[in-house]
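Spend some time on this chain, tokens included, and walk me through the fold:

. . .
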Amino acid sequence: MQVFRAGESWSERPGAHHTISENASTTEPAKLLAISVVDTNDTELTTFDGQ
């Protein structure tokens, strides 16, 4: 597992899949800004609102 702190960033290869994702803090909510660059012919976008 890798922990990211405020101001840190990472990038992922196209088609990356996440089998495990969790908030490392038991007291603070996680916040994430995701920016996706897609081919203009792509039509499907999957989102998750955390609920």
